[in-house]
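The records we work with from here on pair a chain with its fold. Each token is a code from a learned vocabulary of local backbone shapes. A record is reproduced here so that you can trace the correspondence yourselves:

_____
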Amino acid sequence: MLEKLEFLVSIILISMTIVSVVLILLSSLIRMQKYFFKSFDYGASEKKNEEKDTNKPALGNTKEDELAAVITSAIAAVLGEPASSIVVKSIRQVQPIPSAWIVSARQEQVSRLR
């Protein structure tokens, strides 16, 4: 009985080690991915700079401009890039999608009324 337990523990440790090594390899590949694909730019940065200059709207001191600045800085913080490299072209409000629980509760209330 003790031999079976030792065997099972050794299998568990070996399998956990293999999973850990694979996860570390995948994590390092994901980190290295930005270096591989950054080298294949092919002049796209020059086109982006030209588009930035032609598409710049005149900015005033409005609430919409402040909202665009906050959203741009939030996106830059998440992506880890400077805010000057990100262009927010449009901002629109989306309607919140109710959860399945809310939809179910509404249907239940409507069915009670019938």
